[in-house]
Write a structure and sequence with these properties.
single chain, Rossmann fold, mainly alpha, Serine Threonine Protein Phosphatase 5, Tetratricopeptide repeat, 745 residues, 3 domains, 4-stranded mixed beta sheet
Amino acid sequence: MFWILAALALIYAFLAGLRTVADLDTGWQMATGRWVVQHHQVPSKDVLSFTAQGEHWIYPVGAGVIFYLAFLTGGYALLSWLTAAACVGTVALLLRRGTAASAAMAILAVPLIAERTPPRADMFTVVLFAAFLSILWENYETGRAPLWLLPLLMIFWVDVHFGFASGLGLMVAYAGTELLETICGAERRRAAMQRLRSAIPWLGATAVVTLLNPWGWNLYRALLLQQRATSEQQTWIAEWQGVRLNWQTAAAAWSTGGIRSALFSLLIVAVIAGVIALLRRQFGAAILLFAAAYAPVQHIRMVAVFACVVVVIGGKNLSAGLERLGEAIRSPRLRAALVGVAVMLLAMLTYSRSADLITNRHYFGPNADLASFGPGLSWWFPRRAVEFIQRENLPGEIFNTYDEGGFVTWTLGPQRRDYIDGRDTLFGLQRVLRHRELLQSPPDSALWDEEARRYNINTVLFSRGDGIEHGHLRDFCNSSSWRPVYVDEVSAVFVRRAPQTEALIQRFPVDCATTPLPAETEFGNRAEEFAAWVNAAVVLQALGRNLDALDASEKALAIFPGSTSAHLARAGALTAMNRPQEAEKELLTAIALSPSEYTWSNLANLYRREGRPSDAIAAMRKAISLQADPHASLVQLGYYSLAAGHPDDALRAFNEAEQSAPVEERKSTGGDSFAYKVAAGQAEAWNKIGDAKRAAQFQEQAVQLAPNSPQPWLNLAEIYESAGRSADADRARARAASLTQAQSQ
């Protein structure tokens, strides 16, 4: 039974790992590796961006060097094969001394392991964590594990990723587990102390060799800085966000499959295995299982580490529990039948999920992944736009959005640097917020002009995500300061009007209203064809070409009828065409395919737009029930409640939003900030209740958060007027008038 299930797990792991390179961080890590190989030194300062050039930055470079050399050898295809090898290797390490129960858990765990083994530095952490766990648990069970491997593995680990800290944590957990054995009787105490005494020299050596890195002790300072940045990263990086534990979230996960389905399944297994460990008086194992289960609930990034613990430690305890259960079933035929049914069910599950991977239903269906099955580069990168920039040698620096920053610095470097990329501890919250503020500002605004002059930015590159879907693509197409010179179904390039760019603009007179999308109609396979049409639908909708967007989405749905993205694109186009009933039908279909916070939020926005506040509130509550961090949606719920005439409900929503928001969000400033929206909403709610005094207090807070915006002053003037404070109202109106005049000049 073990060999059958282990074979199924390894085959499934290979298929799950073999996918196109799609990760945001791969590019800047390869660019770092290229710099190290070309300059024969390890940088301690930024060498990839023009906005943080020369600033102090430490990050292990070994992974980047490996990826760079792999790319030189076999291109993006070899990087995809490395991903498959890492996924298979992790599962093989977990099953090194496994049982049938461990192999069954490994099948469930494959999606979680595959999620964290793309070609990026923490791929090595997943593999090495599995190796450390396997060796340490073998020593706990037998006292004869090859502990001498730990310091050798750590020498490599410390130079490829900060995740080496999890290896140190595992050693501490192992020592704690052995110490807990000392309270379980004299015999277990003697054995545990003997194992611990023999292990301590190897554990100590493993800790010491972490200093064998280019920065010595300074690497730990960089690690602490990385950890402190986690709370900030939760506001904009999905992998640092958590998972909400309730029935709605679990039901939604199991209905769509994917990593969340696997996560909830393994959470149940972890709890059962932890209880069995407690009954067997293996207190250390129980603590490890419960602690591991807590980690991905806080940060989805920890799913692979959690999966490793469940397979190795949970699998052994489940095996013990199943043995006891088997002893209670006296009929050999019944035992054999139950075993056969279990194997058959797991085989069917493996076949179904593997078929979804090979046919790309997993990637293009309800879960909407950026990758696709097979080796190579993912469809979402702005490859053709970058080739255009290189070919035409566009002048000045290039503004790029967060998502494609790594790809920009890899493909256009080392000659060109990027504006921002995934190195969050380098760029910091202020630069991330500046980047976000630019994307929310009109292209002809003073903010864009100031940024362009400051950094000599003459080119803007947008791609799927922040740039196109949320980056005011149509505004840039209609801008007087920026002109489009290249547009395709995943990217767009704009140049700043200047004497040195006029010839280029005349040579490439792109008209966003008529340019054909997709730009190319020759496709290598169905996956490429689907990606081209669904992306074209999104870009066409962003450009306001709604009939074309509908046509493109229909072509996408003809290839993958279960695509949530295509249904959402159709819904957006239909909404813009004032066809709300059809848009609602598309959104309900998207929700049936993928009941997520995103699909429910889209439906709530449609209801709000159509003047259906009660329906909008109900849909937004559904979205909030699925969110681990709902503070932004709670603000929306507050405004929906105000529109519905329920100021008391609005106040509750605003208060809950304020309590659940990260500290950085509560301290934010500006007219579009979280803190401003909450204060202005609370002021409006108290004003509708009839408490003008409290309304004025909150609106005064809103004014302090956005002192240079006229509207908050006008709102404050109205509240002062209703409170009988005419003189204060006149001063507020005068301030609003002066700000309006200043903005118009």
